Amino acid sequence: MALAFTSLFATAAAADRAVFPGTDWKTAKPASQGLSPAGVARVGKWLEENGSKTGLMIRHGRIVGEWYFDGTDATTQLLVYSTTKSFSSTATGIAIADGKLTLDSTVGQFLPDVQPAEKKQITVGQILSMTTGVHNNKKLDRVPNPFDYAMLEAPLDFRPGEKWDYNNTGLSLLTPLFHAATGQGIDEFLDARVFRPIGITPADWSWDRKADQPLPYSGLHITARALARFGLLVIRGGQWQKRQIVPADWLAAAVRPSQSRAKSYGYLWWNNTDGKWPGVPTDAFASMGKFENDMLIVPSLDLIVIRQVGDVTGHEPNVNIAELFHLAVEAVQDPPAAGK
């Protein structure tokens, strides 16, 4: 995995790694960071025309574009839906590095009462790669306790590992398993191990719970700038300042294909291995949520792009997020010398 880290994050690592936000972010004019001002303006126009609430562009650790609409500002927390999954992945990666879990750890090791008994053989890796085989209950949001449902009621549609199926029910197994392994909820674990060390404060986020446990597949409400801090941590290979917060080898594995059935899916991250986002480098990856609450990360360009809209249930816009990703990448020109 060390080789994977070297190739995936090499260009981003070569950028001015000394630039991290303190209490506030450093800002810069687009041209000073190798971006076309007109190209960045086109990103802002797309965000406005496509019903966005917030937008951010980060290059070389600096904010080069920032937009707020419909009364939002830098303090506004918005629900990011399945972008939450990438945070759950990160917590699991740290727990693996701590020796609390492995990708081969089974559900049965931590949740021996699961039903049917075949669920005991589901591995952590299968949970994170969406290959559990657990039945996908599309009305899971109406279930009072999705964790008990996933453990005790949801049937298996396929043998674990047999098929890729984007599935919140199978992922619900992660919450009780993670708590059994670490003694903490995913949200409180991340607060101590990731959020506070990189400057994400309690005022920047909240996390929905059911049955007094955090959802692993949705539920994170977060400001755009706090989300960008997480993105900067990831593009820097898990390092903040000179401290390794998240194992670099975990991030390299998490954002690459986790199985052969859906190569654009890693461990709760999406990637561009198969060119699903035209005009975007193939090393790009993203955390993506319902209604396109998304964050694109492009290591080869040292670029982070965020678009939030929150909960727009009932008036969902028809958004082609690949257009935004392409516009952001298109804005990149020759990079300036480091530190300029």
Summarize the structure.
The protein is α+β, with helices and mostly antiparallel strands. Helix content is 32%, strand content 14%.
Keywords:
340 residues; alpha+beta; Beta-lactamase; Methane Monooxygenase Hydroxylase, Chain G, domain 1; six-stranded antiparallel sheet; 13 strands; globular; disordered N terminus
For the residues shown, what is the average pLDDT? 94
The name of the CATH superfamily of the largest domain reads DD-peptidase/beta-lactamase superfamily
- Give the termini separation: 32 Å
Q: Return the domain count.
A: 2
Helix content bin: 25-40%
- Can you count the helices? 12
> What Rg is obtained from the alpha carbons, in whole angstroms?
19 Å
Q: Numbering strands along the chain, what is their spatial order in the largest sheet?
A: 2-1-13-12-11-10
Quote the beta fraction.
Answer: 5-15%
The outline comes out as: globular
SSE string, helices as H and strands as E: HHEEEHHHHHHHEEEEHEEHEEEEH
CATH-derived topology of the largest domain: Beta-lactamase
- Describe the main β-sheet briefly: 6 strands, antiparallel
CATH architecture descriptor of the largest domain: 3-Layer(aba) Sandwich
Counting DSSP E segments of at least 2 residues, the number of strands comes to: 13
CATH class of the largest domain, named: Alpha Beta
